[in-house]
Fold each of these.
Amino acid sequence: MKKEIGIVAFKCKKCGKLHYPFHDRCLKCKGREFDPVKPQGNVKLLTFTRIYNLPWGFDQRYLTIGVVEFENGVRAMGQIKADEKDDLKIGMAMIPSWGPVRVQYGENVYGLELEPVK
Amino acid sequence: MRDVAVIGVGMIPFGRRDEDSLMEMLAYASLKALDDAGLGDKSVDAVYVGNMGSGMLQHQSAIASSLVDRLSLLPAPADTVENGPASGGSAVKNGLLAVASGYYDTVLVVGGEKMREVTGWRATDFVATMTHPLAEYVYGITLPGMAGMFTRLYMEKYGVTREHLVAVSIKNQEMGGRNPYAHVEMAITKEGIFDDPAAVVNNPVIADPLHLYDACPVSDGAAALILFPLEKIKNPVKPPVVIAGFGQATDTHTLQEREDPTDLKAVTLAAQQALEMAKLKPSDIHVAELHDAFTILEIAESEHIGFFKKGEGGKAALAGKTAFGGTIPINLSGGLKARGHPVGATGVAQVVDIVFQLRHELPKDRQVKNAQNGLTVNFGGFGNNVLSFVLRRVQQ
């Protein structure tokens, strides 16, 4: 079954600024009350990289990581499911999903996964 | 506030130092600084130690307490200062404020890191722990990865090319070859890392669009300095150099929350504060040590400080304006790219290198003629905690 994307952004009740990740005070007006906002709508790739020198915990040849913006303004980092021949470009549309992005202490850790729209 | 002079400096060669422990490296650099200041058998009023990862890499904490004991500086107050790759700069700041305020007179500042004790896999993870644990680290992002994403945006917005990045690599490795303290002393050519088909093998991608020679090495090393009030210096042995200005600023933890992720606001603010305090303009600086953990950062920082307009830094590097003999020589030590980047040492080493320049004591192939003012930028996190210092040679 497809898992719901587990990201929650926070919209300041006072000035409307959107935050992800969480801050105790609004970065714009220092307000302390927020409405939770789920990322929604089309997803656009803002930037990306393919890393070949991986950190401890990743036993694979490379990892592609990008930052995307959802249509409702939420920005988040995620792992891109693409191989080396895929021609990624800034601004391209991506399909988001929620899946295992890392194993820590023997357990899967879930996060944002992205796949280029073909 | 009192004017604060750097009266002693010390550094040990950076590189892979399997024979030395972290504590030995900190002690060697400190002893050199004490000797340089003529305080070989004297005590100091306080000690600040810049270090990012002894707890993780050496499984040793409270290293400042250990160092004062080893150096027989007891009962001097001693603190370890941790601020990621800007730990050294933050240690210098703490020492500077302590002397400027009049609370202490003689302060030892030392920064060091021993990163080669662990595998590259572990060292990469150690550095990545400064990213946001839930929004970044979990995905396997690394600092080269952050720099890769930044480079792609910077290329798109400002037209920086790989040729510009290569120019920085070649310049800094050339200067590393002239610096006896540098980790990387191997000169490289454009042909070898860019033009020739073999460059694909010599200079592979590490974090697209960045290649191997765009990144600093993982290093061991330490650097130290002695701070003292200028007004109390009598008969100086070496030309006094003062820290004429400093600045520090922070930015969002994650790159994604910056309205324009190519705008390194903390660099601009820190450098502006340092220059204003010193009553100088960017054009008054004769030599600079910038935080080129990746070649793109030297270019971007040179623009954010105001040495060049946005979009001109890469072209300036390619035209030789930032090289030895150029209009604003940058990283004549080889920078992080070639001198190396033992993270806790870097901010201190940058100040030490500028002191060498302003004392006019370097060999001819590295000394900027008649240099009077120098500037440093020590870049913590991915630009989320940045320090800048302006140093000035005191006219006698």
Amino acid sequence: MNPIVSGLLVGVLFGFVLQRGRFCMNSAFRDIILGQDFTLFKALAAAILVSMIGFSIMAMTGIVTLAPKPLMWGANLVGGLVFGMGMVLAGGCASGITYRAGEGMMGALMAVLGFGLSAMMAATGVLNPILKSLQNTKIMTADDKPLTLANMVGVDLKAAMLVLAILIVVVWVVLAMRSRSSVPSFGQKPKSFGEAVFKRGWGWLPTGIVVGLIGMLSFPLSAAAGRNYPLGITGGWVNIFQSLIKWQAVVEEKVKITALNWEGAEVLGIILGALVAALIAGEFAIRAPEPKLLLQTFLGGLLMGFGAVTSSGCNIGHILSGVPQLSLGSILGGISIILGGWFMAYFMFIRPMQDVGASVPGEAASHAAD
Amino acid sequence: MTQVMTPTKTIDERGKICPYPDVDTMTTLKRMKKGEILEVLIDYPLSVERIPRNAQKGGHKVLQVQQLDGPNHSILIEVLGLK
């Protein structure tokens, strides 16, 4: 299949599901410490587990060759932390700002522009020396393979992925059955399957499973286009901006930066898919926050772009695609993203909220007395 | 049971980025008195679903989630604050 068509196809599906499931990792991680809400985190966990099982089976049957990212601890750590702090400022992760741009949110569009600009600055621009020195911390196995949880303990990667995923699923199901809690729902039940799919927000489980399935679908399609990796965002944005900006250099000097590639097409597809989903559901509108917040999302995007390219992956490349392959680099990159996000969320949202609670002493108590 | 649902206070969170609508709602609820009704105007799909969830978790009563035009919603929350 033509790489552009195949990338667009996967992107449109992904964007559609991201919009319907309101799937955003910035929210998934932040909601854990801000309101102890695990809804989106559960969707993410389900997506990772589906991908892990799917990648493993596809690798066993020879459909794909696993491609865990190498560990570059300095870059994974610093890039991840910077990315994590940036995504809180930007109000969305790399996939979050991309799909929300398709919903018509101008704050997300500003974040995307900042992301693209600093991603280019890190990839081929003025920030490249910092990237190079941070990436100079690469550690490989003795036979020059990327470090994974599997080869650390000397077991087969495919088998380890399958066993680990099934184990986690079993423990999760058991725990979930023990603590059944009713989910409150508001408004009327959807009248038809179509309404549930196209008009209403999806629950965390269908969202997670379908995201995981799209991750599976993306792997062989992307590999057929010469990019042996599942879903990604960062490389796609770099590709889009570079193919637009360096086009003349490509033509004249035969620079080895090609025009739009699979990942670039995938990113464009995400915007398109989210746009279509939002239009059908009546959730599309061009809207913007106050100027101060626009600046904030732009700055957040700048941090994210540098962080993602330096760390060699964003929340999608590392957490959704890399963690299922048990890559140590992706696991470190992912943890750093979460910690960077929590650090920023604490100062921006949690402390201010606690101050409000403290400034009205005795009020909660008087309420209880009523 | 029919209730007169006149909001005591309305906050307009349309256009804001994640998670300001949620944080503003929660801090406003903390400042209000029991029995008062807060109306949240909101156009951000994730928060339309998350604000009622969190308000209920905080011990408040969600009276109504109504779609206005396009992505715009009105959420009515009665302040109870029983944690």
